[in-house]
Predict the 3D structure of the following.
Amino acid sequence: MVFCCLSFYAQAQSNIALRSSIAYEQGTSDVWGYVDSLGKEYALVGLTDGLSIVEVTDPDNPQELFTIAGEESVWRDVKVWQDRAYVVNETGGGMKIVNLANLPTNISVATWEENGLTTAHNIFIDEKGLAYLFGSNIGNGGAYVVDLAPDADNPVYVGTYDNAYIHDGYVRNDTLWASELYLGQVSIVDMQDLSNPQILATQNTPSSFTHNCWPSDDGKYVFTTDEVVGGWVTSYQVDSAGIFERSRYRLTSNGENVVPHNVMYKDGYTITSYYTSGISIADASWEGNFIIVGKYDTSPLTGGAFDGCWGVYPYLPSGNILATDQQEGLFVLTPNYVKPAYLEVNVTDADTEELLSNAFVDLLEVSGEERYTTIVGTARTGVLESGTYDLVVSREGYLTDTLFAIELVNDSIVVLNVDLQLDIACDNPQIFEMRVLLEGPYDTASQKMSTELLESGLLPLKQPFDVAPYNYYGVEAVDSLIEFPENVVDWLLVELRTGNELIERRAALLNEDGYVLDIDGTEGIKFCNTQNNISYNLLICHRNHLNIIGAFTVYVFNDIYDFTISQNQVLGAEQLKEINDSIYVMYAGDYDGNNVVNNLDYNIWSVNSAMFGAYMNQDADMNGVSNNLDFNYWKLNRSKIGALLEEE
């Protein structure tokens, strides 16, 4: 699988201008657009209790014309065929058919409820007038297909594809691109024979919770979202040889991962609704590689909540974008679709000329455009504005290379070839062994830590410390969940220090017994930049526990350093918590990683207190669920301060 990834902070607005907004007393869900015969533009806004029809021809002065009552439902979706709107929800009442032909003067509404169909999560209508109802109450909730073309007011059932529940989908040229949420995959299905659909291909998505998908106009690429905290927007190349991942990105909000919802494609760009981070526009024209070129945050909320921006509609003739925010209402926005400056970096071993995968490529002046090279040694990135930039290329076991004053120009591609020299010191790495326990997952009865993150498939394959405040860009990773050593609890970040000087950092794995493992499963961590006659301090970092520093120095050939046996093993007063008869553990509750347990950590827990099935900083006991048990760790340890973490 070929991919590169990026994360960035989506706080400021760029290349998307607010024209107007409308607030609603009730919450909103999805949005679609309609254009009448006179060229007037309308927003069709799903509400928790119906549908709102808003004229947006003048984007600075939107006018709500009609509201249509409907069953109370958080989920309401709407699509248009000719001059009819078709509205579905997950509560009941069948499908509403709204006659829009006489807008802006009047509308009429009918209800279609045939063959026992009463609910559906979503709907898509193809170019032939075939309406695909997804997530309905029929069968497995696959694709239930009705034909609108003979009579738009009286749909006729014509077929079903029901291999699995489909949350959302897209159909063109008799090809269904199905988001099979609970299977964590997108399926491509030939629907020419509606009585006998044929699966052409399937592809798992990175977070295994495939919410929606949207193909490029030529069908050579498909774009997906995973609706989980820290989920990815991902692009895949589709051809006769199969489906291959090309690129992925995800947003952060105040340093916290957030949740993507719906991605759409238009003229070489993806437009994505991203819950608490609003919408983002990415250039995807360079063989499916994402480069962020626009963003607008509709929501005052932050973090991994499922609130905020639900849907986007970028297809109005005016070019304006419609967006719905569940709490803030309807937004009318004007985008500026710009072409970024493109950069391709090819990385090889200077001696062997071998192509180097997993090399880290970082444009220093640009937040969020960090990439890793693919299996063919290539990373593709870019910047929003022309200018001069510095580039750092690094890889485990190699000397870091910095390239200065690279000239990048909008809508142009610069190709750089970088040769990395092997770090000779790593020919003979030195191993430091240690043992440490985390309060959150520790079970006093078994005297072991929980491995539920690994067992539930939630443990990230790559080390998670490439975000603030750690800013560690090491390439420690495994290829798949089965490649993890047995009984792994979580990732740790371990620093080797001499006094206040940071010598080296490595990400490592923590075993249920507290032993720290290297990526290959061996006990201890391999460090390269050590000397036999120098003593070192060990600093242990974890993403939701307070840092600790060893009180005693260690040498290369020391025995294991056991942090669990005494308070005296660490610097500072009461830096470990004693539990279970002289067993010492690291304090839980530091959910923002700033090394202090305070109200900022409570805020993170509070916003995300009902989340589950994700790898979350506020999940202190590491069972994949954020609940009151995690609050209790914060409450018990409030005001505790850990060891100082200094950046390299």
